[in-house]
Amino acid sequence: MKSNEKNFIKRLQRQEEDALEFIVGAYLPLIKGVTYKVLAPLQNEGIVEECINDIFLSIWNNALKFKGDGTDFRKWICAIAKFKAIDYYRQAMKKVEFTSEYMEMNAEKSVEEELIMMENSSELIKLINRLDPIDREIFMMKYFLGISTEDICKQFDLTRTAFDNRIYRGKKKFSVQATSLTFGGNLI
Amino acid sequence: MKDIYELLNDVKLDEKEFIEVEVNDLEKAKVLNTLKTSIKRKKKWRGWKMNVAAAAMFIGLSTAMVGLTFPAYAGDIPVVGDIFRFLDNGRTGLYDNYKEFSTEVNMTEESKGVAITINDAIFDGETIAVTYSVKSEKPLGDNPFIMDTLGVRGTNRMSGSLGITKVDDYNYVGLITASNFEEDDRDVVHFKWDIDRIMFEGSDEAVNGSWKFALSVKATDAEVTALNHVTEQDGVQLTMTKLAVNPMSYTVSYDIQVAQSVKDKWDAVEVDLAITDDLGNVYEGQNNGGYGENSYDHHTSKTFQKLDPKATKLFVTPHIVLRNYSTDDSGGVEITKDGVKEIVSTNTKSEREEHTQEEIVIDLQK
Predict the structure, then answer these.
(1) Contact flag A125-B38 (C-beta cutoff 8 Å)
(2) Which listed CATH number (1.10.3470.10, 1.10.1740.10, 1.20.1250.20, 3.55.40.20) goes with A8-95?
């Protein structure tokens, strides 16, 4: 059986490999567009390629966490793509000596790196989960997806002041909760 | 708590922001290729981790088992630690001391989403007993079974097996035995177990795959005594030939000879031994099956629970059951490699006669 527009989400969630073929065929142009837009300034084809692979792999590994129909799926993978691309951009900026040779030799991150990343993001995600839904979305958009303040204001019909207030209150909440986290937590 | 991927579900992004760029087929193929390799690599990695965890768990469990005087039943332990006991389930108690003296193997073979692990193996000089567990991605039904028997190097005679028991939909444990080798008193046995398929009871379905094991097991220290006790009654003659005592059990080997007059009259002769000792212990046991020229005259053996070291005499009482099968309760089916064959009887009425033979006394040398 082949995956098509109607069944590919189910097949993807059941981890059928042909679903992967379908999503690469249908969405690679889009994913590449999103990734390029973020990573173009780095002028490094290798990072773009690795990032795209990583995005598809994450879609595959987290397919069960997706909820919704085909249109939602498109939005979901775009969000993942953007979030991943920004993540890659930030890492690359921190580590300018990141050479393409290194990329090929170490396509997978070392265990330590992976652990540290997991730790950092899981603590942050824990905090984000404690915000109320609208703030949660605003934070996700602003900090994970790098969407401009104007655009977010437009989408949520907020004034600039209201937006700033929400960000301020959220950050305050974060700092209170972050300091109350137990030792061993690793917060950025 | 939602993780990042679930959170991203709720984010409403502006579609206009996303522009498609041109991608050629080569690029698509490249991405797909990389993905498929990373998926496979990831699977392998996971499997490895699981094996290590399982191995570590078994080592942990077995040390605990040895340390306890009254080891808990496998039922109390989340994962089956002592499969011998688990399968016996307290019925005979025959396998109570097996785990302690067995060799941990922990070899796993995976095929078609089914992983078969040989957990322990033990060889008492007469019988190899191998415990195994089956872990499947899909449920295997209530009664899966494996037809492939153990192959022992240097002999083609063997018999005996216990089925598979379901732990839950995805986990099964089993015990397979092979007994009665042509040449006795081996110190070590080399055997292989090639499994081609797992079948389901009452169905044509099967999981066809390939799971291959080969290993050697050393015999546990056994004290072997040759016997020559003969008893004969109603045309059935029994000769006790050997007593092998090892730390976890003992085995009595014997020959059955049936007179022609009995063969003419009865379809089958079944012999079972009951053993007690001079201290009043009653030993539970299990027949190992046997080999011979025909279904009447054959060499067979029965393994009993651990021998009480203080006992000086064993009292063996043979029970004989003579049977005639009828068309409606025929002896069931004969299962061979070629398939299942029904045993058809011509008798119209089934008959059954029971005899208890005279007690045999075996003196235990001290």
Answers:
(1) no
(2) 1.10.1740.10
